[in-house]
Amino acid sequence: MRIKFWGVRGSTPTAQAENLRYGGNTSCVEVRVGQNVYIFDCGTGFRTLGNSLREEFGESPIAAHVFVSHFHWDHIQGIPFCGPLYDRAENDFRFHCSSRTRTLKQVMQEQMSAPYFPVETKEMKARHHYHDFDPGTVPLGEVTVRALWLNHPQGCMGFRLETRDGIFVYATDNEPGDAQFDKNVRKLAEGADVLVYDAQYLPEEYEARRRGWGHSHWREAVNVVMQSGAKELVLFHHDPDHDDACIDKVVKQARNYYPKVRAAAEGMEIVLPARKSQFAP
Ligand SMILES: [Zn+2]
Ligand SMILES: [Zn+2]
């Protein structure tokens, strides 16, 4: 399994020099398992991922499963700018998300319409299917995806991707403090190899003025990784006002409590070596 981070910022893209070592694009993470492509969220990092897929696949068709946690801008804004969606009918994107508040098809059509955007979804030549994905388990051939609700205004889903090579968990946009949701996030993260978790605020910022905004902080991220038995913690969804120096400091502080912590950075890759199937001869 190879995990690559294309967008790590929360709330809004931040194209400012002091943020660029960690990166300014909003949420988008790509996971490869064998030949298969899984994408988590479509923030502005989805555009650069699209460019990279185009370059890699050349004339061959691109197929991907795309999991959308919720519809806030920082998780969908890259969709209109993802080149492979427009290129050719052979490209195949399967979007999975909950339609509890609205379907993704509606959201995309509304986002890509006058006066907000001059190109409509009908210009997308690629096949794009929408699958309703409510909490539960979906087997997708060689992997299984489990989803649970997180604690966030207007709702957000966390995802757990179980593969032969290990378990990847993507749980962002989650505020601690609600017993059921706290339980959900620990259940998702249980025994994971890699846990990507919302660490938008500093604990002191959260306490002083960010309660009820739907996000977490690095101290809670450390609690989640330790209480769930996940192996590695990746701090994610960095606050737009946190520059590189601030995130460096957060990582250092978090490592005082748990050694296997790093902060997501654009372009960063994590590789879990391929394991042989237990059924293989
Ligand atoms: Zn967000
Ligand atoms: Zn959000």
Major β-sheet, in short? 7 strands, mixed
Question: Mean of the pLDDT scores?
Answer: 95
Bound molecules: zinc ion
The secondary-structure class comes to alpha/beta
Count the DSSP helices.
8
Record the strand order, biggest sheet: 6-5-4-3-2-1-14
Molecular shape? globular
In sequence order, what are the helices and strands, one letter per element? EEEHEHHEHEEEEEHEHHEHEE
What is the oligomeric state here? single chain
Give the helix proportion (percent range).
10-25%
Distance between the termini: 21 Å
Beta strand count: 14
Rounded to an integer, what's the Rg over CA atoms? 18 Å
Would you identify the regions where 5 or more consecutive residues have pLDDT less than 50? Answer: none
Strand content: 25-35%
Q: What are the key terms here?
A:
281 residues, alpha/beta, 7-stranded mixed sheet, 8 helices, binds zinc ion
Q: Could you explain the architecture of this structure?
A:
The chain is of the alpha/beta class. Helices cover about 25% and strands about 25% of the residues. It is built from 8 helices and 14 strands. It has a 7-stranded mixed sheet. Helix 1 (about 45-55) links the parallel strand 3 and strand 4 (about 65). The longest helix is centred in the first third of the chain and has 13 residues, at about 45-55. The two termini are about 20 Å apart. The model has no long low-confidence stretch (mean pLDDT about 95). One zinc ion binds near residues 72 and 152.
